[in-house]
Write a structure and sequence with these properties.
Number of strands: 0
Order of helices and strands: HHHHHHHHHHHH
Distance between the termini: 60 Å
Radius of gyration: 21 Å
Shape: globular
Strand content: under 5%
Helix content: over 70%
Largest sheet: none
Length: 289
Amino acid sequence: MSANSSSAYSFDLYKFLEGCIHSTSCSISIIASTICSLLLVLPPCVYVVYLGLKRRRSGTAASHSDVFTYHMVAIELINFGGFILCSCGVFGGPIELITVSMIIFSINTCGQQLFHTLTCVERYVAVVHPVAYLRLRNQMGATARDVSIGCVWLLCFAYTLIVLWGISSNIVSCCLTLFNFVVVSLCSLSVLCVLIGPRPGERGEGRQQVDRAKKRAFYTITAILGVLLLKFGATVASTGAYFSTMASESDWWNLWLSFSWLSLPSSLVLPLLFLHRAGKLVCCKSVEE
């Protein structure tokens, strides 16, 4: 590839590739991230796929949240391929392997946050606008859900092009994370307000069932809000370090990889919430009670 064609790609990307190849600490961090992902994230994702296939065979209809989780798991499974390719590239493989892995990581970075946000919006509508939510449980709601999922995948590929073309990818990443964080925060506050101030007519046993459903929705949104807060802090810190004149290139790449560990909970939250709803996490049953 010529220098002119290389300059068409993101300079961030190519700096990162060079830093990974020549830095021992970067290589160790990438291998450690790969091992942790395979040990911590892969098992729940595989279990979600197994339960999803089992429900499909039995004819059980999937909720909107479940469908979002399935697509989230698909992105995570693709991301595992990126980790493996990146590790092979670090240990003497062609640099093209790391380039492909960066493309996969970009898809994961965008899709992961957007599916988190869609899940929170779905829970928000279910609690704050229950009548509208019941209307969306028919074919029209499924169509709107599928259109939203299609838009997420398109945005993932658009974000990947932004990273490759170098159109201020750090700033775009910060804006993306900030947008999702604000939307999830608003959903969380709205659900909390409904939870603290019950509506008239919710009494007795029916009131307790409604409150339990509201609490589950609030716990879901709060868990996603927490992992997005970690991700947002990591993104802002790494971007600030990049534009800092006091940090060298090697310091920035090591810091970027260190902060990337804070994104690990983002990969776990939706699969674990799915398993919790399915009653497969016995240690969390006391939360509902």
